[in-house]
Amino acid sequence: TDTTATELADVLAREHGLSFPAAHGVAARLVKLMFDQGRPLTTASPADVTNYRLGSILSGGGSAPSPNTPTAWADMIHRFQDAALATPLGIPLLYGTDAILGHNNVVGATIFPHNIGLGATRDPDLVRRIGRATAEEMVGTGALWNFAPCLCVARNDRWGRTYESFGETPERPSQMATIIDGLQGSSLGDPTSVLATAKHYLA
Length: 203
Hints:
Elements: H1 2-16, H2 20-34, E1 35-36, E2 39-40, H3 46-52, E3 56-59, H4 70-85, E4 94-97, H5 115-121, H6 124-141, E5 145-146, H7 171-175, H8 178-184
Parallel strand pairs: 3-4, 4-5
Antiparallel strand pairs: 1-2
Helix pairs in contact: 1-2, 3-4, 6-8
C-alpha cells in the first residue's frame, strides 16, 4: 500500500498542483479508504459506508445479495442508505447497478437484447421504452443509479465487447440515446426515474 500511496501522490501532485507532502497526505488517506486491514475495498458493508463516509456503491456485473430477489435487493440497499444517513452530515448514498440489459443482476427481472441488436432495430422509441421499463424495475429495488447505457461507437470488431455498442457509426448510438430519456424520465425528481451513465468515454 505504500507504493500505491506514492504513485497516487505523484499523480495528485502532477495533475492537481499539490505539493508532494500535501499530495502524499491525501493519497495516504485515500489508500486507507481503499484498503481495510490489508484487503482491497471491493466489497462494502453498511459499516464501511458509515466509517469511510462512502458516497456511492456500485453493484457491478454479477454482484447480488443472497437470496437474489427484488426484496433482498431492496432490504440490502435500505441498510446501506440507513448507514449513509447515520454519518454526521446524513448525506444519502447513491446506489448503482450495472443494468445494461434491463435490471439484469436481479433474478426474475426483464432481460432485453444487447445494444447491438437494439441498434439493428433502428427504433429509438423502442429503446426509450426499454429504458423506462428498466428504470421502473430498478426503482422497485431501491437502485437509483444505472451504470449504463453504453453509447460508444464500436469500430473494431476484434474488441471483445462490440455487442455493447448500438452500432459502428456515430449516428446510431446518437439516435439510440433515447434510452437515457427512458431511464431518467422527464425529471430526475420523478419517483420512477434513475440516473443514467453514458459510457465508455475518455475524459
